[in-house]
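Good day; I would like, with your permission, to put a structural problem before you. I would ask you to consider whether the tokens describe a fold that such a sequence might reasonably adopt. The full record is reproduced below for your convenience:
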Amino acid sequence: MNVPVWVWLATIGGLLVLLAIDLIIVDRKPHEVTVGEAARWVVFYVAVAVLFGLGIWMFAGGTHAGEYFAGYITEYSLSVDNLFIFLVIMSAFAVPPAHQHKVLLVGIVLALVLRGIFIAVGAAAIAQFSWVFYVFGAFLVYTAIKLSKSNMGDAEGEEYEENRITKWARKLFPVTDDYHGGRVFTRMNGRRYATPMFIVMIAIGSADLLFAVDSIPAIFGLTKEAFLVFTANAFALMGLRQLYFLLGGLLRRLVYLSVGLAVILGFIGVKMVLEALHTNALPFINGGQPVPVPTVNIAVSLSVIVSVLVITAVASLLKTRRDDRRAMVSAGSDTMR
């Protein structure tokens, strides 16, 4: 897939325009984002992402479009993991509800810039070293096993510990104790100070790097095209902050989400290893010759990803509904006594 420079520039310009419109419309008058407002923005960003995918279908063909959609769905679902950390960070910094949208917007823009660097490095490594796919595949399988044993739905009571980037930002700028409206910087007694708003933006953006370590190798397992990897990540992140306001307490009801994401990561990891074997050039594996193993096409990958997410969501909601009914019955029994 040969993507001209002007297409890259036009795409990035379009993304910046979308972010500017969002910032102007929503943050013109800072307010607490309602569920209805968040729902409309989520639908808008998903629709834009789908239209972009249809454009790829028209100009680059169905295969690349399928890779984009598989990557977008995977990145969006993996990004839900971020929301649990966002909840913890927002609580730790006591961000006023009226300014949470601005914090997420700037934090996610920072995350997108950092991911762009990560994607460029990953694409260069894959083009230069054939063994990178073995490493990525093995890492995703390991991550899947580790993730399957975690409990992503329990954000309550979890304490936030500032990472090195956030601590470095505190050393770089003196920080006020209180928020000053929506200001990122303020001046007090003739001296320039950062507000907690600045620190929490850095915290949101830098925390995403931890998730990029998993998600970037995962999408490279679905497509090697850097343009598709970047745009899938961009649209997933842009719709993420509105999803934060929309889902709210629903996040804690997705009790099987970690299992579903683990299955997806494990599947992509195995897919990457099979493709690496199929195009093998390492001299110590099969004498440097390709290994005749089956590979997984993008249609199967997309079907597996969507199916796992649907089953995970339905199973999670059924379980939490059943648990709620049992709790109500138990509470009723205790009251009668």
